[in-house]
Design brief:
single chain; 434 residues; alpha/beta; Lyase, Ornithine Decarboxylase, Chain A, domain 1; TIM Barrel; 2 domains; 10-stranded mixed sheet; 19 strands; 24% strand; Orn/DAP/Arg_de-COase; pyridoxal phosphate
Length: 434
């Protein structure tokens, strides 16, 4: 089913989160300004527990590697680390962040298509889990192994294989081929295996197979898991330690999204079923790694924006808020997010209007939501947008106005997870020349 392109807005008493009262948000405004994000820490813990339980109850040798790129708010990453999640990173920036928040480097999974010699040296020296994405990285690994002949060098390979279903591409945007990983169909995998095995102290211990699919279907994960297991048994059985199926699974969608999607248990049943079949007779089953991002954090963030003005232009109503489309959907897709209005005063009027919620930038297309049906929000009301935790904060550019703060809500406490940006941070004097 398709997502709704317009939704009927409801007032705050129906909001499932704690912040329902206007005066509560006003108190937070005094510290964080008239727009800010809210991180629901308890919801984050619940998501982690649900994913972990779904998989670990079916396949015990299992870990979660949280996808930092989805939302690398340090407060959030540290909380997930405390819960037991490994750090899945795709750049040196993210790797260094994991170290900065105190993550054990042995619990860092270093993926991604761009790694320098220095990155490889650091990851291998720290005994991090390293997945090679491209052939050029093999030379870096071999140079490290040559300089450290007494050290065993374990590496994993990200592999690229066909996941089309009935001749139709399963990849996002309908791309015919994924651009990531080492191709298994053109001799590149055999070349990689030969090159790595030319060094006695290098061990190929795992296979990684993350694919960004457009439908996140169970069938896609069945194909991915089965291919990884088959390739592992055919090529690295004697040294196999882990199967990393990547991320991309659906999380729990808000009720207004009229979509039927697989639950965590459905994914776990599909993936773990194959793992148990393929490795059921093994004395020690290989580690299964899942790298969720969207599923972990999308629904644990809200964005609260104060209404500055509601005005009528010809036959349309426009509600200006202290926020922009960059704060709630930086890719500027046309779907309306679930949202609630927290009103300053109760208006017994039931008159409804159709209105648009627009932002502070000078772009005509700065629509946070469009064609909303409900009672018109008024000045000093607040609009709370839900499901803004995935990619929204990391994509949020410093454009026209400073980035908003982030409040961590851990019942009943409210803590600053990120302060509101000021001109000193916006134009950092360590990098800008004045």
């Amino acid at each position: 089913m398709e997502r709704l392109n317009a939704c009927t807005v409801t007032d705050a008493p129906g909001l499932e989160h704690v912040l329902l009262k206007h005066d509560q948000i006003q108190r937070l405004e005094a510290e964080f300004g008239s727009s800010f994000y809210i991180l629901d820490v308890n919801k984050l813990r619940e998501n982690y527990r649900k994913i972990n339980t779904a998989f670990k109850s079916r396949y015990e040798n299992f870990i979660i590697g949280y996808s930092y790129k989805t939302n690398y708010l340090p407060y959030l990453c540290k909380e997930l680390s405390n819960l037991g999640a490994y750090a899945e990173v795709v750049s040196r920036l993210e790797y260094d962040l994991a170290l900065k928040i105190g993550e054990d480097p042995k619990r860092i999974i270093f993926n991604g298509p761009l790694k320098t010699m220095d990155d490889i040296n650091l990851a291998l020296t720290n005994n991090s889990i390293l997945n090679i994405d491209s052939l050029y990285e093999i030379d870096f690994v071999k140079r490290f192994a040559s300089k450290n002949p007494e050290v065993e060098v374990p590496v994993g390979l990200r592999v690229n294989f066909e996941i089309s279903q009935n001749g139709v591409s399963a990849l996002q945007e309908g791309y015919k081929y994924s651009r990531f990983g080492i191709c298994v169909n053109n001799g590149n995998l055999e070349h990689a295996l030969t090159e790595l095995r030319s060094m006695e102290n290098i061990r190929i211990v795992g296979l990684h197979g993350h694919f960004s699919t457009k439908n996140r279907s169970l069938e896609s994960y069945k194909i991915i898991t089965q291919n990884l297991c088959t390739l592992a048994k055919e090529n690295i059985l004697d040294s196999l330690e882990y199967i990393d199926i990547g991320g991309g699974i659906y999380g729990e969608l808000p009720k207004p999204y009229d979509m039927l999607v697989p639950a965590f248990d459905d994914y776990a049943e599909t993936i773990c079923g194959i793992m148990n079949t393929e490795f059921g007779d093994f004395h020690k089953k290989p580690l299964l790694i899942l790298e969720p991002g969207v599923a972990m954090v999308a629904n644990v963030f809200l964005f609260a924006a104060k209404v500055i003005e509601s005005k009528r232009i010809r036959n349309d109503y426009f509600v200006l808020v202290d926020g922009s489309v960059h704060n709630v959907k930086p890719t500027m897709h046309k779907n309306n997010l679930p949202m609630k209005i927290v009103r300053q005063e109760h208006d017994p009027s039931e008159e409804k209007q159709t209105f648009h919620i627009v932002g502070y930038t000078c772009m005509e297309k700065d629509y946070l939501a469009s064609e909303i049906k409900g009672r018109l929000p008024m000045k000093d009301d607040y609009i709370i947008f839900e499901n803004v935790g995935a990619y929204t904060i990391v994509f949020n550019p410093p454009f026209i106005k400073e980035r908003p703060g982030i409040v961590a809500m851990d019942h009943p406490e409210f803590t600053a997870a990120r302060k509101k940006e000021t001109i000193r941070q916006f134009f950092n004097e360590e990098i800008y020349v004045f």
